[in-house]
Write a structure and sequence with these properties.
Blueprint: H1 11-18, H2 29-33, E1 42-45, H3 51-62, E2 66-71, H4 75-86, E3 92-96, H5 102-116, E4 121-124, H6 139-167, E5 170-175, H7 179-182, H8 188-208, E6 213-220, H9 240-251, E7 262-265
Parallel strand pairs: 1-2, 1-4, 2-3, 4-5, 5-6, 6-7
Helix pairs in contact: 3-4, 3-9, 5-6, 6-8
């Protein structure tokens, strides 16, 4: 008896018949547990005594990195995060410094190297925020934003790069926010200073590539209350850990062919 070949079935039809779960890849337990490792690295995260910075420090510590917690004035908060990191089995330090002050940044980096031996990863998370309309904005307010959001990453990068060069490489991650891309009334000083940091990131990626130093930029989306979550494709705000996972990946050896890039971690609020 002649066999009649079955009619071809499209992937779309097959998935429709099997249900939504069929669209997901089958991942074994070992692969599911595998995470980019930063074990043995030393990471400095500025502005990390609370919120997203704290979550980033603790995620790096969970993955085996020694960490430096930085705050401008909140010693108690910085030391509390340091203690949380140490409880995860890594070395940690808490150092106060205003990243907009060159002298304080240099001192922070010297102290970090004295305590932990080296710095392999810099995450320039510290940021200045505050709304002021252009007509009311003072020169001091403009410069205060630039000091933290633009000068800060520059001072920190310049301070850590010599050690990274001597150690054969490193990671520098600068940070901005969605408002720099959307634009926001009253945030001219914030948007300008953070977009400036993106330009610096791209230039440093080229300049430092011969030394094995990879430089990338991360743009967080909404991780606290959002006035209209429906504007986000995933229709929810993000979890701090979801952003920290991106930092951990860029800090790891698994990002070894990525530099000069801007990564949006925003649940689809801005699609670029």
């Amino acid at each position: 008896m002649k066999t009649v070949p079955a009619a071809p079935v499209s992937r779309r039809s097959a998935l429709k018949g099997l249900g939504a779960a069929a669209a997901l890849p089958v991942v074994g337990p070992a692969l599911r547990r595998r995470q980019p490792s930063v074990e043995g690295k030393v990471a400095l995260v500025t502005g990390s005594s609370r919120n997203l910075g704290r979550a980033t420090v603790l995620e790096l510590a969970r993955r085996g990195a020694d960490v430096i917690v930085n705050a401008r004035t909140s010693r108690d908060e910085a030391e509390a995060v340091r203690d949380e990191a140490e409880a995860l089995g890594v070395r940690a330090a808490a150092i106060l410094a205003d990243v907009g002050d060159e002298t304080q940044v240099n001192r922070m980096v010297d102290q970090a190297i004295d305590q932990l031996g080296r710095i392999d990863v810099l995450i320039a998370n510290a940021g200045y925020r505050g709304s002021t309309q252009l007509s009311a904005m003072t020169t001091d307010e403009w410069r205060a934003a630039a000091a933290v959001n633009f000068d800060g990453p520059f001072f920190c990068a310049r301070a850590v790069v010599p050690g990274m060069m001597a150690n054969g490489g490193g990671r520098i991650i600068t940070v901005s926010g969605l408002n720099s891309f959307h634009g926001r009334s009253g945030w001219a000083h914030i948007c300008a200073s953070k977009m400036g940091a993106i330009g610096m990131t791209r230039a440093l990626a080229v300049e430092l590539a011969p030394y094995g130093i990879l430089v990338n930029h991360v743009v967080p989306g909404a991780y606290v209350g959002h006035p209209d979550p429906s504007r986000i494709a995933l229709e929810r705000i993000g979890l701090a850990e979801e952003l920290a996972h991106m930092y951990a990946f860029l800090a790891s050896d698994e990002s070894s062919y990525i530099t000069g890039q801007t990564f949006h971690v925003n649940g689809g609020e801005l699609r670029v």
